[in-house]
Design goal:
It contains five helices and 32 strands. It has 465 residues and is mainly β. The strands form eight sheets. The chain has a six-stranded mixed sheet with strand order 3-6-12-11-8-9, with no helix packed on it. Strands 23-22-25-30-27-28 form a six-stranded mixed sheet, with no helix packed on it. The longest helix is centred in the first third of the chain and has 10 residues. The chain is elongated and about 85 Å long.
């Protein structure tokens, strides 16, 4: 039986605009720049020129509402220090909490209310949603005493300060587990015309480069999630079970369905079946759409769907599937940093094929000299373009977003690279003409040195013997 959390059009729009997902286990950071209160007017320098007064608490009660993604009000004034009842109402669709700087936490699922108490000192008290990414997305606020707008710097145990700029990369851990190579071989087309696919949502530690571990959110336990390959017109039933600790959802770009129909929030422990018909051929993305979707995608929740055209694809010697994506590292063993991913000038720590930096340079992918090679390639982003290129080859057939360059065309045209924006996919074909090494990269070379490189090894890899 499907158990579905309520969703509204407004909430779904927030998920698209705000973008990714987060883990309730991360610690909040308390030394943040005080957010402008609701109604503040920004000065030309970006500082609030006029701030609306804080909401006045009742004599002994503080009321805070969480929505996706914010608190209302952001500033609450109490008349004096002391202990107050707190009513925390979550009118959004996903799980939120309000965590005060003294460690007091109230948590509520979408549509629910939690109550408790908090002791407010003379200097006031900051609060935040501690679910990773939610605080960075704006879920921060304060309680002031006697109308004083200045809140003392308050820290929860083990909390770490945040700086005005995005944090840097963590230091590699020599004791980190070795990465597990992601098999690049494209799967076969699923037999039949109706497919039932189990796709559990799993949160797990993944080594994404030598010495670097991310607590990833995944479809099926891998980054990227499993590649689903079907024929045009097939029916696909994807059975999702949320085995994680936070709310997630899924959006199949190969499907046609209203945003508030099947792109629903799946709470921890819940199940949902997403059904679609493969109406159009192509290489398609799927991803988590729970707000902020940017964080969910940046932390591993994406994968590829291949829909073969009418009559299928002709047989070739080798087929591979590569998904380009980015890692914005937080602390070792923690989820990706939403703060870093949310910078307007993207500066990922790693850009990778199939989740792991340099894995196919460390262990080249064997191909047949003189053979026909087909590559399905998807740019999952979330933010960086791809220029997929195989050094020493020419693509003689390219299908990009439904537009084709055909092998043997009358003009003799070929292609050196296929350009993909985030969420675009393509199929490229080429033939390695001699034994040797054929690197594949994104031709944005600043990202090659950050992990976006692999090698096809043709024959014995030596062109001179």
């Amino acid at each position: 039986m499907n158990r579905i959390r309520r969703i509204t059009v407004g909430v779904a729009l927030v998920a698209i605009v705000a973008a990714g997902c987060s883990s309730a286990a991360a610690r909040p950071a308390w030394t943040y720049a005080r957010p402008p209160a609701e109604g503040a007017v920004a000065s030309p320098a970006g500082e609030p020129a006029a701030v609306a007064p804080a909401a006045q608490a009742a004599a002994d009660t503080i009321s805070i509402e969480a929505f996706d993604l914010g608190f209302r009000p952001q500033s609450v004034a109490v008349p004096a220090p002391g202990t107050y009842d707190v009513t925390f109402s979550n009118t959004g669709a996903m799980l939120h909490d309000v965590t005060f700087a003294d460690g007091t936490t109230l948590s509520a699922a979408g549509g629910e209310t939690a109550t408790g108490t908090v002791t407010v000192p003379e200097g006031g008290l900051a609060f935040i949603c501690s679910i990773p990414g939610h605080g960075d997305a704006g879920m921060k606020g304060e309680i002031t005493v006697g109308g004083d707008a200045a809140v003392a710097a308050m820290h929860a145990p083990d909390a770490s300060p945040t700086s005005a700029s995005a944090p840097g990369a963590p230091v590699a851990d020599p004791a980190a587990a070795r990465y597990e190579r992601f098999d690049p071989v494209a799967p076969a087309v699923l037999p039949g015309t109706t497919h039932d696919i189990d796709l559990p949502i799993i949160e797990k530690d993944i080594t994404v480069a030598d010495g670097f571990v991310v607590h990833a959110w995944t479809f099926g336990g891998t980054v990227p999630g499993p590649t689903i390959r079907v024929h045009l017109g097939d029916t696909v039933n994807v059975h999702l079970t949320n085995k994680g600790e936070m709310t997630h959802s899924i959006d199949f770009h190969a499907s046609q369905t209203a945003m508030n129909h099947q792109m629903v929030e799946i709470a921890p422990g819940d199940t949902f079946t997403y059904t679609f018909t493969a109406d159009y051929a192509g290489v398609w993305m799927y991803h988590c759409g729970t707000a902020p979707a940017l964080h969910h995608i940046a932390n591993g929740m994406f994968g590829m769907v291949i829909v073969e055209p009418e009559g299928g694809l002709p047989k070739v010697d080798e087929e591979f599937a590569f998904v380009q994506s980015e890692w914005y590292l937080g602390a070792q063993g923690e989820p990706a940093s939403y703060e870093k991913a949310n910078q307007t000038a993207a500066a990922p720590d790693f850009v990778v094929f199939n989740g792991i930096a340099n894995q196919y340079k460390d262990e080249p992918v064997p191909v047949t000299t003189g053979g026909r090679v087909r590559v399905f390639v998807l740019d999952a982003g979330p933010s960086v373009d791809s220029s997929f290129h195989v050094v020493g080859t020419i693509f003689d057939q390219v299908t990009k977003e439904g537009v084709q360059l055909l092998r043997g065309n009358a003009g003799g045209w070929g292609s050196q690279a296929v350009d993909l924006a985030p969420a675009q996919g393509a199929i490229v074909e080429f033939t390695p003409t001699e034994d040797g090494m054929y690197p594949f990269v994104t031709h944005a070379f600043n990202f090659v040195t950050h992990g976006a490189v692999g090698i096809f090894s043709a024959g014995d890899g030596d062109p001179l013997n």
